[in-house]
Amino acid sequence: MTIEAHISLKAENAGSVGRERIRLLEAVAREGSITAGAKAVGLSYKAAWDALDAMANLFGAPMLATRAGGKAGGGAELTPTGIRVIEAFHRLEAEMERTLRALQSELAGTGISPGSLITGFLMRTSARNTLRGTISAIQSDAIAAAVAVDVAPGTTIHALVTNESVRELGLCVGREAIVLVKAPFVVVATGKEPPAVSVRNRIAATVRRCTASDVSAEVVLDIGGGKSLAATISAASAKALDLQPGLPAFALFDASHVILAID
């Protein structure tokens, strides 16, 4: 049996807010309208508005900014308060999961197994590149979604994920996300202009350092904002490119090689 932590936030004279209402808020932000967001989580338009009003009452500020036009007869996007509420809620859930995990030894023999892995506070990954950023755009079709994450000023990384992943992770514009890219997936090209190749991510950078062995080399590229991307390439390629510190370069990798995670 798996035990999950659920949070319900309440205040006097205000309705409670739990996971389902947070998912509604995420869906409205993701879909761009209250009508479409309500449909995505199986609620009526009125029930969605009631839930949004309850959240605004609880936190003392509106969660969404609405505008005329847009999808399904009216657009909507998260307010700064809405973004903070979503992030805080998921952090609270993660903290509760962590508490359950800490109690695992005491629960031995009770049939309770709080051992499910969580992202965020306890996330560990084998990916060499782990960058935090803010989702700036989501474009989806019937199967997949292209998600843009701003990781540094002027630097955006694009990921291609399934629509199911977008829903399960609660991805929406304005929310923070963690970008994971394995170093062997990153190709290095030199020059001041991006090469004409069929990869979505062509990140302008400068070489910070290159450490080579007999067979392979690790190249660390400065992408601005104090952030970097690492690439693992062959020692022969590193020698041919003459990757000296300060050399203009590009980090190239496909959007399908990008993994997204959330706190």
From TrEMBL:
PROSITE patterns: MOP. Keywords: Molybdenum, Repeat, Transport. One of its GO terms (molecular function) is DNA-binding transcription factor activity. Gene3D superfamilies: 2.40.50.100, Winged helix-like DNA-binding domain superfamily/Winged helix DNA-binding domain (1.10.10.10). GO terms for biological process: molybdate ion transport. Residues 124-190, 196-262 form the Mop domain. Residues 125-133 are annotated as: Required for dimer formation and molybdate binding. InterPro entries: LysR_HTH_N, Mo/tungstate-bd_C_term_dom, ModE, Molybdate_resp_trans_reg, Mop_domain, Transp-assoc_OB_typ1, WH-like_DNA-bd_sf, WH_DNA-bd_sf. PANTHER family: DNA-BINDING TRANSCRIPTIONAL DUAL REGULATOR MODE, TRANSCRIPTIONAL REGULATOR MODE. Belongs to the ModE family. This is Molybdenum-pterin-binding protein MopA. It comes from Hartmannibacter diazotrophicus. The lineage of its organism: Bacteria, Pseudomonadati, Pseudomonadota, Alphaproteobacteria, Hyphomicrobiales.
